[in-house]
Amino acid sequence: WLKTSGAEWRRRGGRDLRRAPSTRRSRSVPGTSAQRSRSARSGTDVAVAMAIGGASSLPLIVPLLASLSAALALALVLARREQRSARFEAEEQRVAAERQAKLRDEERKGRIRAERQLREASQASASGVGGGAGGEGSEEAEIAKPGFVFHPIGHFASCYRNRCGTPRQGGIVPESLAVLQCDRDLNPKAALEGLSSYSHCWVLYIFHQNTNLQREGRTVAKRRQTKGRVPLWQGLCMKVAPPRCPDRDLRVGVLACRTPHRPNPVGLSLARIMRVDAAAGEVVLAGLDVVDGTPCLDLKPYLPSFECIPDASVPSWVQASFEEPLMKVEWTPEASAQLSSLLRGGVGEQQQAPLQLRPFSSEAELRRAVEGTLALDIRSPLQRERHPNPGVSAQQPFFVGDLWFHELHVTYG
Fold this sequence. Notes:
The protein has helices spanning 2-11, 14-17, 33-54, 58-127, 136-143, 188-191, 212-223, 304-307, 316-322, 333-344, 363-374, 381-386, and strands spanning 154-158, 177-182, 200-206, 239-240, 252-253, 266-277, 282-286, 295-301, 346-347, 350-351, 401-405, 408-412. It is α+β, with helices and mostly antiparallel strands. Helix 4 crosses helix 5.
């Protein structure tokens, strides 16, 4: 109102009224009533003009006070909003914590209940309770039999691409290399920390190219059994010819030798640790008898103070298998030249990408691995029977075979 009145006053000539004499008590001047009325109105205008002139700085102060009031009100609103938001977040966290605690409690109770049911079913099956042999209760107890599920921690990229040529025992070809590529879900950077401090480790893996499952399926299908319990490991021979045994007529129990055809196709080998790259999740192992693509179940450090038993005894046929002489391997000039040319990037006029040596570090190391593998006489027992060694030198080989090794297709005689 003051701002509007001041502007209006200036338009009406208030500038002249500012120069009015100072307000002093004036004596009453005699005159007519009309003159006294005009004098009174003039005095009133002068007083208003003086008041407005003294308040000329109010238009600057009033907006400032209004701005401060608005800022204080806004800060108060924001503070109250933050308090409400903090209380809401605290309440959400409390509810989430209670929900998680409830879920954990329910999961624990469910796990305990399931384990108790499996235990009771196993005990009932062992005691013959639940309908007898061939009844529905027996089948339910068989289904409820406890089992285990394993997930591979990774897979091997091995220099042995096929089963043919793969050593029957770890450590026989110490120059062979295999790279374990760990699964990303394993968190390899944390899981492999400290493994490089050991020189050797035990490797547990799966015989993934075994034929036991197909054989068991065919045997069960021939039974045409619709009721009752089907025994496990149908079609698996429990007595086998041991690998690399000189006596071809010898048969031993499947648990008394290292055959890959086992009730549970799990392999165990001792390997030398060459390199560990925890960041990339890779472990390079030497002397491992696995086929390319083999799933790995676990790695366990080798402890010589506890696991090395020098006075351990073995059967005579095991000792005889290790005393079997190795074959002498010689490279023909043509094969040696072809290998060198492949490593440079081509054979003859055909140019191609150079052969990848990794995980081998040099051509000499790759050659030694091939020689160590062929020195074992990798022929199958049937091939040895059909093509026996004549024992005399000849111009033509008595047997010609091939070996898929690393990225090479090797033909040997």
